[in-house]
Amino acid sequence: MASGYGYSGGRGRCYPYWQEVIKCYQSVGEPSECRLQADDYLECLHHRKEIARAKLIQSEFIKHAAHLDREAQKGADIAQGGAVATVGLIDKSSSGGK
């Protein structure tokens, strides 16, 4: 990738980030000072942070959908049994015939 050529022969998508890393390495004495530029370059190559964020969003979406399903089921149970019976004012087992 450091060559700067992409798959189609043009500039690679991450080449500008690579240039920033090289420029930083040339201007400072300590390579650890270029950690931010190197992290940006590696993120461009591998998309690890982006993938982790997408997985987190997907899991939260699934949890939220499951919560909505539970709430809908509670609403269906209330509608089926009647609101008064679910409050506990009327015992379902004794309401009926004698």
From TrEMBL:
Primary localization class, coarse: mitochondrion
GO cellular component terms, semicolon-separated: mitochondrial inner membrane; mitochondrial intermembrane space
Keywords noted in UniProt: Disulfide bond, Electron transport, Membrane, Mitochondrion, Mitochondrion inner membrane, Respiratory chain, Transport
Species in which this protein is naturally found: Exidia glandulosa HHB12029
Topology term for the membrane: Peripheral membrane protein
Statement: the UniProt record of this protein carries the keyword Amino-acid biosynthesis: no
Protein family according to the UniProt entry: Belongs to the complex I NDUFS5 subunit family.
Name the record gives this protein: NADH dehydrogenase [ubiquinone] iron-sulfur protein 5
Key word Transport present: yes
Subunit and partners: Mammalian complex I is composed of 45 different subunits. This is a component of the iron-sulfur (IP) fragment of the enzyme.
